[in-house]
Amino acid sequence: MATKRTLIAAIGDDDTITGLLLAGIGNVDEGSEKKQSNFYVHEQHAQLSVLEDHFRQFTQEREDIAILLINQHIAELIRPLVEKYTQPFPALLEIPSKEHPYDPEKDTILKRVQKLVGD
Question: Coiled-coil regions in this chain (predicted)?
Answer without folding.
Answer: none
